[in-house]
Amino acid sequence: MDIASIIKDMTKIIEANLNIKIDEASISYQRLKTHFHFALKRIINREKTFGIDAELFEVIKTKYSKAYNIAKQIQQHINDEYEYNIPEEEIAYISLHIQRIINSA
Questions:
Q1: What is the Cα–Cα distance from 97 to 5, expressed in whole angstroms?
Q2: Would you list the domain boundaries of the chain?
Q3: Is the pLDDT of residue 1 over 70?
Q4: What is the CA radius of gyration of the chain?
Q5: Is the dihedral of CA 52, 58, 59, 64 positive or negative?
Q6: Of residues 11, 13, 7, the one with CA closest to residue 69
Q7: Where are the alpha helices (DSSP H) in the chain?
Q8: What 8-state DSSP symbol labels residue 86?
Q9: Can you identify the CATH homologous superfamily of domain 3-104?
Q10: What tens digit of pLDDT does each residue of 21-75 get?
């Protein structure tokens, strides 16, 4: 399993959903890529992931529903293609990074 390949897949999913070309030099993309890299390492190594407050999780799902839905597609793709499950708390954090990309597009 190659983390760089998964990140490329993730980028394609975001670009397809937003109908944009992500500036890979942007700080928003770099933050997303860095977070995702370390999240994948935690998942692969079966390390504990960061928790998230249930109320905050609901706010993210509701307020940033487009970003959350894209993150869920990424979650499903990684599960289907690589057989890794991204926990919901990671999906929330990834949603915030995707929202930052949406805001800067």
A1: 19
A2: 3-104
A3: no
A4: 13
A5: positive
A6: 13
A7: 3-18, 27-44, 54-63, 65-82, 88-104
A8: P
A9: PRD domain (1.10.1790.10)
A10: 999 999 999 999 999 999 999 888 988 877 888 999 999 999 999 999 999 999 9
